[in-house]
Amino acid sequence: MTAPATVVRSPAEIRRARRLGITYIVLAAFVLWVFGMGSLGEGSATFKLVRPTDRFKDFPDLVLPAAGIAFVIAAALAAFGGIQLTRGFKKLSNVVLAVGFILFIFAFLAWAAAGSSFSLVGMLDESVKRSVPIAMGALAGVMCERVAVINIAIEGMLLGGAFVAAIVGSQFGSFWALVGATMVGVVLAWVLAVLAVRYRVDQIIVGVVINVFVLGLTSFISQRILNQNPHLNNATLLRPIKIPLLGDIPFFGQILFQQNIFVFAMFILVAVMTYSLFHTKWGLRSRAVGEHPKAADTLGVNVYRYRYLNVMMGGAIAGFGGAFYIQGSVGRFDENMTAGKGFVGLAAMIFGRWHPVGAMAAALVFGFADSIQGKLAILKVPIPSEFLLMAPYLATIIVVAGVVGRARPPAADGQPYVKE
Amino acid sequence: MLKRRLSVVALLAAIALVVAACGDDTTESTAATTTTQAATTTAAATTTTAGETTTTEAMGPAALVCQVSDTGGIDDKSFNETAWNGMLQAQEQFGVEPQFLESTDATDYRPNIDSFIAQGCDVIITVGFLLADDTAAAAADNPEQLFAIIDYPVIIPGVGPIAPFTETSTNARGLNFNTNEAAFLAGYLAAGMTATGVIGTFGGINIPPVTTFMDGFARGAAYYDSVKGTTTTVLGWDVEAQDGLFTGNFDSLDDGRAFAQNLMDEGADIILPVAGPVGLGSGAAIQDANAGGASVMMIGVDADMFFSAPDLQDVLLTSIQKKIDAAVLNTISNVLVLGALGNEYFGTLANGGVDLAPFHNFESAVPAELAAELVQLKADIIAGNVSVSG
Questions:
Q1: Would the CB atoms of A385 and B206 count as touching at under 8 Å?
Q2: Which CATH number covers residue B69?
């Protein structure tokens, strides 16, 4: 990343830092009063760390005094607030924010589970699974925006990938389904690239058009053809792969090393993209194209070629991510089954500051918010189920609107390049 | 250059809009698409009346019966599909011509109803509680048009009209089901069959036709406990609070997978998804878990899912049948034979409108004693000796 060398903070930044600090302290007070006092005398919260089918199924549960843990977390949040107000966390700001968010949720869970138990491993496993399409969308976004092409069409690419994966998977098996889904992402990205790079059309408009096009086309075919031919919409699932030894580690093994191919692909992609973007010639040139295409061009980098290639690679990632809905989840296409996850992916990209690792971390936060409401309803927390369903969207709004702050996009983001 | 660029975008946008319109089933596309629809789905009835002007046969034009489905879609293997089966049965018996329009959104309900009114349907059947407002409004605006709505009472004898329907809503008939009676049996069965002592359920949206399944299920399990002195935990529905676990939609299969996994993580080994096609995702998750060594069963809803979702036969313990098809057929037959809708319909265990499906593959797994108790319990519920609503 190309952080400016000077650390002079603008008044807006200072105001934001102060607001964030106050937010931490308010949260601390909330945790103390509502969760801490609310669960006094309610007994312990039991978090199950292994599944009954695990190898080490007798691994002990995590039993915590609900009130005690709330007090500890309240203290931590108050400390965050204090540091934020005095010194600031500088570059770590978003990391601390994520930690604070997790701590707050943990206090909430302890309060909800006080006197009963629930499967923490199940919830985190689900968070990882649910974050996959979001992360794939976010990584696709990083690929495109690093070369200054805004890709709103990620949603359409995910949906198109899912659709093709269902049909091809039903006919020719999972391998070709993944290939097909990836290819359809590439084709859609190519359309985006042609219009955005060559014809210099407004990138937002092109993205929206692609989304509407894919939604309409897949819904139409689904209603008119797939409904009458269920054999075209019955793909086999890719079962979780257990990595030997690592997969047997209690708790972490289940979450990280006993997953389907999409989860592993997500981890690998993040590693590969981080290395390539920041440590290879290709990465440096890509970033140059996104920051200052004219300079890059002057130095002999083919701006158009980089934009075309990277956008199409982004499309490949999004299309592959779309196949998760079929091969990684239920094996059956349904109209609009991505349900806006591509847009959540864009939010994750911004929250993650256009960095692959950040994007995945943000996707995990969203995946977590997605999986948490199911647990809460089972624990019978006194919150109406309709409000629990809002959790993922609430998290998105809070994160994007309230606390991300000044995330700096690539300087030329969204601007077409005209070679003189 | 600029001209060319604009024309490319315009072309793409135009295609997008046309295709989107087809996918949404809005009024404009109806005439064209339903004609092909009827052509593909009906082999016998060739009198496709797109404009109902050209076709004249000896019998006269076949009666047109029309269904507006909810967002789950006509192929949801349960709710909408069962209603559609009733239409197909009517086609076989009376030679009527069935047509459907799928709603992809709540905003589609009224346009879909209106386009059917314009087509001159003999009766319009709206599938589901969520369509009540639009059905009532359309019935009030078109007093000559006959309507039937599933899962919503229109005018209960002795009680009066149920809002949004009014005294004048005599052109509409409610098709209601005491699903909790059959769900009670399923709860009793599940409590008798569980190995872990934990059973689970989740719903689509917190509305009466959904929660009646969950409520009956939980109460049936509690009844088993009170008879046998066992302790069964029912996850996902709180009888006192009348709230529980909901996906918030009737179409995300991925939610169905996630929610079933969630319940299994908490130890549930019998799962009742009450959310139309979402349950197919749950079935996939259960099969996945069983392949990994678990032993979890699922209870289907609406149709006997053993037949409507044959992929899931290896996990389906039974299904809570809500015979919407019978109610739809009955309504159509009334309209054709009597020329009127007939009185409000209430499906019960007594009249066979709701029932517990056979165990099929699990026939040998269910102890004979438990099966006999279920037969007795069913008789008791019909006789009023056992209350299913607490």
A1: yes
A2: 3.40.50.2300
pLDDT 10s digits, B50-107: 333 333 333 456 789 999 988 877 877 778 888 999 999 999 999 999 999 988 788 9
Taking contacts as CB-CB distances below 8 angstroms, the residues of chain B near A234 are 311
Q: Distance from CA of residue A387 to its chain's centroid?
A: 22
How far away is chain B from the Cα of A387, in angstroms, using its nearest Cα?
A: 10
**DSSP codes joined into one string, A58-125:** TPPPEEEEHHHHHHHHHHHHHHHHHHHHHT--GGGHHHHHHHHHHHHHHHHHHHHHBTSEEEHHHHHH
Find, among B332, B327, B342, the residue nearest to B97 by Cα.
B332
Ranges of each domain in chain A: 1-115, 120-378
Pick the closest to residue A137 from A325, A371, A372 (CA basis): A325
B223 and B75 housed in the same domain: no
Q: Are residues A332 and B280, on separate chains, in Cβ contact within 8 Å?
A: yes
Q: What number is the ipTM of this complex?
A: 0.81
Of B76, B68, B78, nearest in space to B147 by CA: B68
Residue B256: inside a domain, yes or no?
Answer: yes
Answer for the pair B286, B310: CB distance below 8 angstroms, yes or no. Answer: no
Question: Does the predicted model carry a pTM greater than 0.90?
Answer: no
Contacts by residues B30-35 (CB-CB < 8 Å, ≥ 24 positions apart): B30/B101, B30/B115, B30/B119, B33/A224, B34/B99, B34/B101
